[in-house]
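Lab notebook, bench 4. Still working through the backlog of constructs that have no structural model yet. Next entry is a single chain of 358 residues. Request: give me the structure tokens for it.
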Amino acid sequence: MTRQAGSGSPSAASGRERRQRHQRGQALRVVLMVAGGLVALALVGLVALFILRDSPVFLIESVEAEPTEHVTQTDIQNLVSVPVGSTLLNVDTDAVEAALKKDPWVADVTFERVFPHTLRIEIVEQQVEALVVMNTGSIAWYLGDADIWIQPTKIEASEGQSVNDAALAQALADGCLLITDVPATVSPVAGSVATDEVLDAVAAFRRGFSEEFLSQVVSFSAASTDSITCTLRNGVEILLGSPTDIAAKETVITQTLEQHPGAVTYINVRVVTDPAVRPTVRLVDSENVEAGDGVSASGADEGQAATDSSQGSSDASQGDASQGADSGGEGSQGAGDGSSDGGGDAEGSADATAEGDA
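Model written out:
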């Protein structure tokens, strides 16, 4: 009796394997044919490019570039020079970009080839990060967002207006930060990177502060790396010291402002990690107090110090025994802050008497 081969027989399995090998072979041949076609097209394209790159078919007859706010059409014409005979396929865009970046306002350059004869150039300007005012004279420099010095500008102060006040008005109009009191050792060069320690210290504070707090800051004073000061939009001046414990300093500042809404004019947070050292706070207790304008007092103002001193004395005499003891303790701390500031923080003695209310 002869048994027919079923689906589970060896001959059936062998047939399925043959069909699968045949299908895989066909698929492989299709893939190889497609790959071969793509390679052939690529070779044709390369040959065409080689033939056409120097061909007058795509000769550059027009160069278009829109001027920007600080890069004029004349600037572009003076900087850009496309060699005669250049085509859209062989033009040296790297050389064109390098020429344009000789202008420190130019941050980036992109190109568009508009066939058959036009090269279109788009210029991206540097964004101004800060207006930097030196501690001598009335010359300031624009600093770009890549820490590149851009160009100097003269600060024109009106009658009765300080250079820093005029610079703040200009910085606010330009939508950038103001950095004042930068030492004369900082020597900007247009197009170079700013590597000065005092500016690095300011940058560290800006990186360390939260976005919410940083949005309140309108200016920094950077006389030295260990005496950085910032001024808020409401006019409160804050002695930050060196760029250490930045998050802790922000916390103390925020808590102090919340505890004394609208009454704080000055906070010293140079030291926040030593429990024995309390931040120095200057308050103004008056019904006539108005919001500040964001302009730093640049150290101790004698009239304000006298006002703070008399206010503190009055508070001390009117306070109870515990209040007076607190004032006395803070007095020694305030005097310490004043001496450590090297004279620039002479308000320490005045703050000492005002500490009772703080």
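Notes after review: Residues 180 and 221 are 5 Å apart (CA to CA). The chain has ten helices and twelve strands. Flag for follow-up if needed.
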